[in-house]
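Notes from the 1:1 (GR / supervisor)

We went over the backlog. Supervisor wanted to see one worked example end to end before approving the batch request, so GR pasted a single chain during the call. The sequence is below; no edits were made to it. Supervisor asked that the structure be written out right there so they could see what the output format looks like.
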Amino acid sequence: MSQSLTAAAPVAELALTGDLTRPARLTVPDLPAWPQHAAEVSFECAAGGVQHRRFTGPLLHDVLTAAGPVFDPARGKDRLRFLIAVSGMDGHYALLSWAEIDPDFGRAPVLLAVTIDRTPLDRTGSQLVLPQDRCGARHISGIDAIRVDGGYRAWT
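Structure output shown during the call:
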């Protein structure tokens, strides 16, 4: 996983932070290092009605797994307490659970899109895409941060 920035032109970057052994700063040109997936998505927008888009990019699960989430191996289902907070440069945000994207549980094919309708997102930043969502509210454009948080150990 590259952590360098492209010097030739300004590109948007996102920070992977939180409970990770390998936090990183990534740009859209860094994301093709992971296997790419395509998704034809239809979703409703409050302002624009039904939208039809084609996105490509790596799975969020693959990128976050490479960053090394700090799961406790002594606790068999420890990863189920982890949350993922995604924020965009425009102030929008979404919260997901690790279980949603984990192949052993929800297996949702959540993408960090590098293209939308074949247009590269290098300068505007990656987009969170949840193909399973009917509403596009969790499709976060211009991602600037993804935080993995396992701080929910016990409730009383």
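Supervisor's comment: The first strand starts at residue 13 and ends at 18.
Batch request approved.
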